[in-house]
Write a structure and sequence with these properties.
- Helices cover about 40% and strands about 20% of the residues.
- It is of the alpha/beta class.
- The protein has a single domain, classed as P-loop containing nucleotide triphosphate hydrolases (Rossmann fold), CATH 3.40.50.300.
- It has a 7-stranded parallel beta sheet with strand order 3-2-4-1-5-6-7, with helices on both faces.
- Strand 5, helix 6 and strand 6 form a beta-alpha-beta unit.
- The longest helix is centred in the first third of the chain and has 14 residues.
- The model has no long low-confidence stretch (mean pLDDT about 95).
- The structure holds adenosine-5'-triphosphate (ATP) and magnesium ion.
- One of its GO terms (molecular function) is ATP binding.
Length: about 240
Amino acid sequence: MPVLVITGTGTEVGKTVVTAAVAATALAAGRSVAVLKAAQTGVRPDEPGDAQEVARLAGAVTTAELARYPDPLAPATAARRAGRPPVHPHEVAERAAKLATDHDLVLVEGAGGLLVRFDAAGGTLADAAALLTAPVLVVAPAGLGTLNATELTARELRGRGLDLAGVVIGSWPGEPDLAARCNLLDLPDVTGAPLLGAVQAGAGALDPAAFRTSAPRWLAPRLEGVWDAEAFRVRESP
Ligand SMILES: Nc1ncnc2c1ncn2[C@@H]1O[C@H](COP(=O)(O)OP(=O)(O)OP(=O)(O)O)[C@@H](O)[C@H]1O
Ligand SMILES: [Mg+2]
C-alpha cells in the first residue's frame, strides 16, 4: 500500500486528524511516510496547512503541497478567484508517485469531499486515485446523517472502479448517542467496506506525544494499528 488516498464525506470531518493518526501509526511501525495535501485552500502563505498539521501531530513525515489558495473554497473556485493555475489530477498522481519512490507510505489528502473540483475541467481527487490505482480511505462523521453521505461516497468510488479500503470515523465522541452507536453496525453494511478505525474526539488537541502513543489504538490492523472493530462495537453499544 505505498499510496493511500484519504477523502471524506465533506469538509471538517477529520481527514487531517485521521491522516495524522495513520501517519503516526505507520511511523511507529518503522515506515517512512510522506503526506501530500493536493490543494490547500483557506490559509495564507505563512500559515500552517493540513500537511504541517499532520507533521505537528505525527512527527517526522515529509510534507508536500501542490498549491495554496487564500480563499476557503473548493480548489477550482479558489484558483479561479486567485487568478492562478489550478491543480490537475495528473499532477497530484505524479507527485504522489514520485514520493512513493522514496517513502514506504504516501498519504494523499484531498480538499473537502470526493467530488470537490480541482480544476475547471471537473478533475477531482477520484481522478487522481484512478491514475494511481490507489486505495481510498473515507473519513466519516460518527452521528446522524453519516449513513447517506458515506454510502454516496462509497457508491461513487465503486462506480469509478476504485478500491474503497474502508471507513474511519473522524471524531468518536466520549458519550456517543444512539445514532453514533448504531452507525458502527450500519456503516460497514451500507458501504460494503470495513470500519478501519475511530479517532477519539479531542484527538487533534492532544499534545503530540500523547497523540502518537494513542494513534495505533484508533486504527485497525489494515492500517497497522490494534483497533478491533467488533470489540469496539460491543464496548460502545452494549
Ligand atoms: N478526533 C478529533 N479530535 C479533535 N479535533 C478534531 C477531531 N477531528 C476533527 N477535529 C477538529 O475538527 C476540525 C476539522 O478537522 P480536520 O481539519 O481534520 O477536517 P478535514 O476533513 O481535514 O477538513 P478539510 O476539508 O478542511 O481538510 C479541526 O479543527 C480539527 O482539529
Ligand atoms: Mg484537512
